[in-house]
Amino acid sequence: MRQEAILHFPWDALAALQYALTALSSVFNALYFASYRPFSKRRRVGALALMAVSIALLAQSLHWGLLPLLLGRSWLYTLPDQSRLFIGIPALLGSLLITALILRQLTNRRKK
């Protein structure tokens, strides 16, 4: 029988927020790199690689975090509460770093 998705505050709420933030950041990054049109072939390949990384982070975030929370429990929820947060930290930090670099590039373009 399917278990209902019940939040055990504060850890489940923090984990859901973490995965949602990673997903939003990854969508932003993927859309930016999909629309990026550099002149050099190297930069095009780099943009495609970063778009693929962003899509992978989005898929991981949905698979490990948000969908199990919405659809019921998964193996991830058998871990201690704090461990669920630590698993998603590298993905969140990587995605936010890429977002910060994009935003810095966009603000530098506007200043010129």
Describe the structure.
The protein is 78% helix and 0% strand. Residues 1-5 have low confidence and may be disordered. It has helices at residues 11-35, 41-71, 81-111. The chain is mainly alpha-helical. The protein has one domain. Helix 1 packs antiparallel against helix 2 (41-71) and helix 2 (41-71) packs antiparallel against helix 3 (81-111). The chain has three helices and no strands.
Provide a brief overview of the structure.
This protein has 112 residues and is mostly helical. It contains 3 helices and no strands. The chain starts with 10 loop residues before the first helix and ends with a helix.
Overall form? elongated
How many beta strands in the DSSP annotation? 0
What is the C-alpha radius of gyration, as a whole number of Å? Answer: 17 Å
- Helix content range of the residues, please? over 70%
Q: How many structurally independent domains?
A: 1
- Give the mean pLDDT: 81
Distance between the termini: 60 Å
Helices and strands, in order, run as: HHH
- Poorly predicted parts: 1-5
Supply the number of helical segments: 3
- Biggest sheet record: none
Task: Decide which structural class fits the backbone.
Answer: mainly alpha
